[in-house]
Amino acid sequence: MRFRVERRSGVPTYLQLVRQVEQALRLGALQPGDQLPTAKAVVEETAINPNTVLKAYRELERGGLVEARPGRGTFVLRTLARPASEVDGVLRVELEGWMERAAGAGLSVEDVDALVADARARRFEGGGARA
Amino acid sequence: MRWSLMRGRVGSRGVGPVPEGAVRFDGVGKRFGGRSALRDCTFEVPRGRVAALVGPNGAGKTTLLMVATGLLRADEGRVEVLGADPARVGMPPGASFVAQDKPLYGTFRVREMLRAAAALNARGRWDAARAAGLVEAAGIGFDERVGALSPGGRARVALAIALGRDPELLLLDEPLAELDPLARRQVMGAVLAASAESGTTVVLSSHVIADVEDACDHLVLLGGGRVRLDGAVEDLLAQHRVITGATEPDGAVVHGSRFGRQVEALVRGTGDGEPPTLDDLVMGYLQAEDGRVAAAGAPS
């Protein structure tokens, strides 16, 4: 597990670490029983403050995703990967078809991003701009 | 002298609990001839922190570090480093200092330099394996001549020697100056690894806030020989806001700048506006007149 810290992104560093671990769990790159890198290893690589790493690991522990075992390290408790299903495949094909049509209609990447973000916000976050 | 009841560790002298502050300055002043290099400096770096001593060139950072190590004696005020007065005991045994010029013997080979360091530290703690390990981890050959190393290589050797003393407190004067971006990352990484592994308190000076802002959780800001800010980075940021508007806001304005028709002000307090970046905070306090909070209504 290698962490990438984006310093000017506006997202607090500890949150970046939390999300990267969650992403790894979703993709199966981290499995239950795996050990997260030690704070020492992370700060040696990224030159961030050790407390930032500890804060991220505590957050993951609060979410029940990992467990700190004193003297031994921090270990993954559960995965976030969903079992692959037929629906996933169909959704992906539909999405790629939509992308094709959007490109054909002359949408730019930014246009696509804006449309997707808005539709997603309306469905998942109860927000989004009015059409 | 403040004693912490929460940390039950026995101090190195074997008596009583260990003071909470690693470095404590109280009203410290230092003059060179007629010139005041440090004036009424009061701050405290708690144990276990990675503290940035930040300020423009000439602000007094090197002077402050040299007073902390006992290489200079304060004219006024009290200095306490790991519970002792460095003016009386010299460099506290639990502390290591790396000066800006990274003092090493240029004609020595690296292995000879490490042997010299071991001999110079014969009466104290010396972890030869740790020092050698750090040199090796830096990819530096033991047979290379110190003088032929890159600035980054010299910094890594100097740091290896400082950490070979197994210090509770590591003081570094501009450790990243003259280093390329990769070497800067690696030196900071090695410093932070020591903090992560051993809880070593770190105080490092820098005139470039961007170099240290992700690494440090404590800030001491020096301007014109005075301490302008001292505190945990998290707390300092939470206690200030940046407010943009047509006029300077009411309240405790640290510094306001006019940009065309807008005024952007760093304010002490919570509520309206945006949280400041560390850069906003540092620049605001450095530009504030005499380090005092400017009166509301008068753009600086």
Strand and helix layout:
The complex is a heterodimer of chains A (131) and B (300).
Chain A: H1 13-27, H2 39-46, H3 50-62, E1 66-69, E2 73-76, H4 86-104, H5 109-125
Antiparallel strand pairs in A: 1-2
Helix pairs in contact in A: 1-3, 2-3
Chain B: E1 21-32, E2 35-46, E3 50-54, H1 61-68, E4 76-81, H2 86-89, E5 95-98, H3 110-120, H4 128-137, H5 151-164, E6 169-172, H6 181-198, E7 201-206, H7 209-212, E8 218-223, E9 226-232, H8 233-238, E10 240-245, E11 252-259, E12 262-268, H9 278-287
Parallel strand pairs in B: 3-7, 3-8, 5-6, 6-7
Antiparallel strand pairs in B: 1-2, 1-4, 8-9, 10-12, 11-12
Helix pairs in contact in B: 4-5, 5-6
* Largest two-chain interface: A-B, 17 and 14 residues
Question: What gyration radius of chain A follows from the Cα positions, in whole Å?
Answer: 19 Å
What's the oligomerization state? heterodimer
* Average pLDDT of chain A: 90
Terminal CA distance of chain A = 41 Å
Task: Report the major sheet of chain A.
Answer: 2 strands, antiparallel
Proportion of helical residues of chain B: 25-40%
Q: How many β-strands of chain B, per DSSP?
A: 12
Going by CATH, the architecture of the largest domain in chain A would be: Orthogonal Bundle
The CATH superfamily name of the largest domain in chain B is P-loop containing nucleotide triphosphate hydrolases
The CATH architecture classification of the largest domain in chain B is 3-Layer(aba) Sandwich
At CATH level 3, the topology of the largest domain in chain B is Rossmann fold
Poorly predicted spans of chain B: 1-15, 291-300
Q: Which outline of chain B best applies?
A: globular
Radius of gyration of chain B: 21 Å
The number of domains of chain A is 2
CATH fold description of the largest domain in chain A: Arc Repressor Mutant, subunit A
